[in-house]
From TrEMBL:
<dbReference type="Pfam" id="PF01257">
    <property type="entry name" value="2Fe-2S_thioredx"/>
</dbReference>
<dbReference type="GO" id="GO:0051539">
    <property type="term" value="F:4 iron, 4 sulfur cluster binding"/>
</dbReference>
<dbReference type="InterPro" id="IPR011538">
    <property type="entry name" value="Nuo51_FMN-bd"/>
</dbReference>
<protein>
    <submittedName>
        <fullName>NADH-quinone oxidoreductase subunit F</fullName>
    </submittedName>
</protein>
<comment type="similarity">
    <text>Belongs to the complex I 51 kDa subunit family.</text>
</comment>
<dbReference type="InterPro" id="IPR019575">
    <property type="entry name" value="Nuop51_4Fe4S-bd"/>
</dbReference>
<dbReference type="InterPro" id="IPR037225">
    <property type="entry name" value="Nuo51_FMN-bd_sf"/>
</dbReference>
<dbReference type="Pfam" id="PF12838">
    <property type="entry name" value="Fer4_7"/>
</dbReference>
<dbReference type="GO" id="GO:0010181">
    <property type="term" value="F:FMN binding"/>
</dbReference>
<dbReference type="GO" id="GO:0046872">
    <property type="term" value="F:metal ion binding"/>
</dbReference>
<keyword id="KW-0411">Iron-sulfur</keyword>
<keyword id="KW-0004">4Fe-4S</keyword>
<dbReference type="InterPro" id="IPR017896">
    <property type="entry name" value="4Fe4S_Fe-S-bd"/>
</dbReference>
<dbReference type="InterPro" id="IPR017900">
    <property type="entry name" value="4Fe4S_Fe_S_CS"/>
</dbReference>
<dbReference type="InterPro" id="IPR037207">
    <property type="entry name" value="Nuop51_4Fe4S-bd_sf"/>
</dbReference>
<feature type="domain" description="4Fe-4S ferredoxin-type">
    <location>
        <begin position="540"/>
        <end position="569"/>
    </location>
</feature>
<dbReference type="InterPro" id="IPR001949">
    <property type="entry name" value="NADH-UbQ_OxRdtase_51kDa_CS"/>
</dbReference>
């Protein structure tokens, strides 16, 4: 790795940057300079290490020491103690909560022990802005191998044998997609990398592009060779500035090194790449909408067939593949299909990256072999539920997926098994919920998202999702009826059956699955006008417990509608008929005298 004696790798993922990661980097650089060590020690802003809960994270190479929750003011101690005197800064090492033991190497942390990094192999390991570091870790060797030793058909065969399936959500076999695109006859073909990543909470693709952009460029060139394309586009949302910046640097460096452009490896094969920006519409991640957007048209989906493999960008055969799918290609070419297919379950090979979020202790980015159980992800890797609360459900598949409950936590996960238990793999969003989460509210959250993201082309999706949202709003406001529940079901099936694209076809899934598993919770909202978790503020009934009230007047002072009455040091009372259920009094009372039963 580079000419530096020590590399201080600082996580440049969004989570760490939000916790002053940038200031940590700046302070480390300033202090290194002030101490005269800046020529032998380098500070590198890497891609995401995944352990976002413990950020900002620093890893020192080659010492293999992992520091967590680093603050800008810790930079001085890290340089003076670790870098100059060779003494580890104990207080910044990760402490495993159950063992109450400090752990230096990330390999020994429970968060990483069940993970297997294939797509994320270089994230946090290489400097994403230095092509030489990528090359030092076998970068572009797979491209060299396919161009000099394999025919396009052999490349496709290898990918087919590996069992790799698209990681963008659909799980279509990648080798087969390339085969179809290769078989389409045309003078010009295209490769598109789908980096739209619109699922709420998902950041797998961004992390790969920020942490290892060359792996995607190399794979696009391999895909181009396999299908017979000499040009590729990366369609990325404009809200990903760091990923865009790193892609631009990587493309420039690859061109200068002769690894993109004309006559690659002296074989006569040409391949170049351009970046196109999306405006952040979820529907533009759907491949036909993406292609329209790329062509400068409205980002609306169209009927398939014809599939892009036949008629895609500018009417030419096009292979659209997801970022994570691409990131798996070089290791398959170098280590072989057999190695890849030895990982995972019978029908889903390799690993999957998940953005683990919600009420779990270790929020972060995790890459696990297919076939692992959700229990292992949530409890062994994720460290269990926050504050010792009870697990309630986990949502996979983002707004297209569904909830999975305790009884299915031991199902080995793959594309088919998740469908079998009423959810789906999707692109990798995984949101954990505890006993305090209201399932009607969760369904409303996802439906609001799909309603707002509907492109409006077809009526069932455009109008149907709006009607469903209105019904859910009614229910969470305490105005719903049993007829509304029936209407929700009927609308769901109608929208699923008559929408044009995957957005509409799957939008009702979160509603249907929460109704299936948490029917009693819906009934409590409509019949008892009661939200069992107390999360639906519209149904809350704030009351003051006389025995606990000390008459401090704090609640009366914050009530925006002056509906709390009482004198100093006397019990206060809420006039429920005027209460707008804002919750201000509940959050203010220091004596736990206000409840929302
Ligand atoms: C509403 C909608 C949004 C989608 N968003 C994405 C996305 O952000 N990224 C992605 O790779 N695929 C997305 N897809 C799937 C793509 O249409 C396509 O199947 C995928 O890019 C193919 O790549 P893969 O075979 O490598 O998975 C979306 C599909 C739908 C219906
Ligand atoms: S289903 Fe929804 S998002 Fe898809 S084309 Fe129809 S209106 Fe647009
Ligand atoms: S804030 Fe609590 S203790 Fe104080 S008056 Fe209100 S209910 Fe009573
Ligand atoms: S919930 Fe809001 S409106 Fe109702 S009593 Fe409390 S502060 Fe007043």
């Amino acid at each position: 790795m580079s000419n530096y004696r020590i590399n201080i790798m600082v996580c440049g993922g969004t989570g760490c940057l939000a916790s002053e990661g940038d200031k940590v980097i700046r302070n480390l650089e300033l202090i290194l300079k002030a101490r005269g060590y800046d020529k032998e020690v380098q500070v590198v802003k890497t891609g995401c290490f995944g352990f976002c809960e413990q950020g900002p994270i620093i890893k020192i190479h080659p010492d293999n020491v992992f520091y967590v929750k680093v603050k800008p003011q810790d930079a001085k101690e890290i340089i003076d103690e670790h870098i100059i005197k060779g003494r580890k800064v104990e207080r910044l090492l990760y402490e495993e909560p159950n063992m109450q033991k400090k752990i230096e190497e990330h390999e020994n942390m429970p968060f990483y022990q069940k993970q297997l990094r294939v797509a994320l192999r270089n994230c946090g390991l290489v400097n994403p802005e230095d092509i030489h570091e990528y090359i030092a870790f076998d970068g572009y060797a797979a491209l060299g191998k396919v161009l000099t030793k394999m025919t396009p058909d052999e490349v496709i065969e290898e990918i087919q044998q590996s069992g790799l399936r698209g990681r963008g959500g659909g799980g279509f076999p990648t080798g087969l997609k390339w085969k179809f695109t290769r078989q389409s006859k045309a003078d010009q073909k295209y490769i598109i990398c789908n980096a739209d990543e619109g699922d709420p909470g998902a950041f797998m693709d961004r992390s790969i592009l920020e942490g290892d952009p060359h792996s995607v460029l190399e794979s696009m060139a391999i895909a181009g060779y396999a299908i017979g394309a000499d040009y590729g586009y990366i369609y990325i949302r404009a809200e990903y500035p760091l990923a865009i910046e790193r892609l631009n640097v990587a493309i420039k460096q690859a061109r200068e090194a002769g690894l993109l452009g004309k006559d690659l490896f002296g074989t006569g094969f040409n391949f170049d790449i351009d970046i196109k920006y999306g405006a952040g519409a979820f529907v533009c991640g759907e491949e036909t909408a993406l292609i329209h957007s790329l062509e400068g048209k409205r980002g609306e989906p169209t009927y398939k067939p014809p599939y892009p493999a036949e008629s895609g960008y500018k009417g030419m055969p096009t292979s659209v593949n997801n970022v994570e799918t691409f990131a798996n290609i070089p290791p398959i070419i170098l280590k072989g299909a057999k190695w890849f297919s030895s990982i995972g379950s019978e029908k889903s090979k390799g690993t999957k990256v998940f953005a683990l979020a919600g009420k779990v202790n270790n929020v972060g980015l995790v890459e696990v072999p297919m076939g692992i159980t959700l229990r292992e992800i949530i409890y062994d890797i994720g460290g269990g539920i926050q504050h010792g609360k009870k697990f309630k459900a986990v949502q996979t598949g983002g707004p297209s997926g569904g909830v999975i409950t305790e009884k299915d936590l031991d199902t080995p996960i793959d594309y088919e098994s998740l469908m079998g238990i009423g959810s789906m793999m999707g692109s990798g969003g995984m949101i954990v919920m505890d006993e305090d989460n209201c399932m009607v509210n969760i369904a409303k959250f996802y439906l609001e998202f799909t309603m707002e993201e509907s492109c409006g082309r077809c009526t069932p999706c455009r109008v149907g999702t709006k009607r469903m949202y209105e019904i859910l709003q009614k229910i969470t406001d305490g105005e719903g009826s049993m007829d509304d529940l029936q209407n929700l079901k009927e609308l769901s099936h109608m929208i699923k059956g008559s929408s044009l694209c995957g957005l509409g076809q799957t939008a009702p899934n979160p509603v249907l699955s929460t109704m299936h598993f948490f029917w009693d919770e819906y009934v409590a909202h409509v019949n008892d006008k009661h939200c069992p978790t107390g999360e639906c503020t519209g149904l809350a009934k704030y009351k003051i417990i006389p025995e606990k009230c000390v008459g401090c007047t704090a609640c009366a002072r914050v009530c925006p509608v002056d509906c709390i009455e009482g004198e100093v040091k006397k019990v206060h009372v809420i006039d429920e008929s005027r209460c707008i259920k804002c919750g201000a009094c509940f959050n203010t009372c220091k004596f736990s005298a206000i409840v929302k039963p």
